[in-house]
User: Which sequence fits this backbone?
């Protein structure tokens, strides 16, 4: 074994994403510090994904390596959690095989995006959802989502300025569900481009609320970010699961 | 009509309760300022209850009086909400009869108390629940709750030092429900003493987790706060409804 695999949940509101950045609060830096404080050793942490500032995670996967003491996988989460702030929790730990890499071993990821489809914010859920006042036709939203499922070049749904050149990805499923005022999008793919989920949700939400938009097929074919809709706010997005 | 009745939801985390206090952030002061900014007039606000620092509300009722402009009850919430911070929302408004008083007209209130019954905090729900590691036997918790239902002198379940002399209240219902790791208490009464819900929940949770405790009937009969359990933390408590 090369170390431990941690499954982590965090509320991203007060962090500039996962990845360590100088002078900024990040989940990686906070977790690294907590592990060092609880285990008394310096460790190296590798995450399954960068997440953007303000994005949340329920099933984030990280690999811990270094001169680790002999500690059971059952005790490790509890030990680390005592040193973590209230917005990050280690949910479980496991032993990592030699060839495991949180990012390169991943076969896919699932994200959830929450919308409060109301003119009135919900103060309880506000950190985790986008308040969107125009009524979303969820049946129509699902038709639009369906057009994005499959293997496509998603260049039009990638943040402008991103330097990635291979922009083909395969979406396994993408759907929307209404629960009272809440509309929840769920999407899984073998990988995602920068801001891809947020641009897809921004596009589908506005189109399904009756706003003028180019047909999804034409947006895809154009490979031009300018034809897609707005980037939905970070706070509605949660990295829900990573598939291995 | 004497003014407007507002139904308000707020996340209490960053407030020292409802009631205006000098130099401290309170929901009443924040709402008063937002109303003045949106309507351009000074108003008087009367709440249905004081709530403690950190306690939340989903159905708080407040009366607005003063030199109010002519505005429909449909438009009023939206006008005020544009000036409110994200942790307070006016859910709806109605016209108030001359004899309505948010506190004295109330026939009862319902509170909800949320416990995360786990050794691991949920970062998403942490602002709204008490993380309690020992397993709670919910069936037994319900038996204990049942012994508190009815008309009793609840002096033993009132914060020590409280100056109220009439400590008899009638609990209409009090029960616990498990939802996975979550245990949710729901209680309604004609009125509540200071910290009463939090002391009842602290007592029942510990007793139902197997901690040594005097029988509920004996605690009630003793009229002595020292015999009840701990006061559960404020953050798990939500004022859910007010009955008129």
Assistant:
């Amino acid at each position: 074994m090369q170390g431990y695999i941690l499954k982590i949940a965090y509320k991203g509101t007060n962090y500039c994403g996962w990845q360590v950045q100088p002078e900024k609060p990040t989940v990686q830096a906070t977790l690294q510090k907590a592990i060092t404080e609880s285990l008394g050793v310096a460790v190296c942490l590798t995450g399954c994904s960068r997440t953007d500032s303000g994005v949340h995670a329920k099933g984030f996967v990280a690999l811990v390596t270094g001169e680790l003491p002999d500690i059971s996988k059952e005790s490790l989460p509890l030990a680390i959690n005592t040193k973590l702030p209230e917005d990050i929790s280690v949910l479980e730990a496991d032993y990592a095989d030699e060839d495991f890499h949180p990012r390169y071993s991943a076969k896919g990821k699932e994200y959830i995006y929450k919308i409060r489809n109301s003119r009135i914010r919900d103060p309880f859920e506000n950190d985790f959802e986008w308040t969107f006042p125009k009524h979303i036709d969820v049946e129509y939203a699902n038709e639009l989502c369906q057009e994005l499922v499959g293997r496509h070049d998603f260049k039009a749904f990638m943040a402008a300025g991103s330097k990635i050149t291979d922009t083909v990805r395969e979406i396994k499923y993408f759907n929307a569900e209404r629960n009272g005022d809440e509309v929840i999008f769920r999407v899984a793919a073998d990988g995602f481009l920068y801001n891809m989920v947020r641009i897809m949700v921004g596009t589908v939400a506005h189109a399904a609320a009756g706003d003028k938009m180019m047909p999804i097929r034409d947006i895809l074919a154009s490979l031009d970010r300018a034809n897609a809709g707005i980037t939905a706010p970070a706070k509605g997005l949660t990295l829900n699961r990573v598939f291995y």
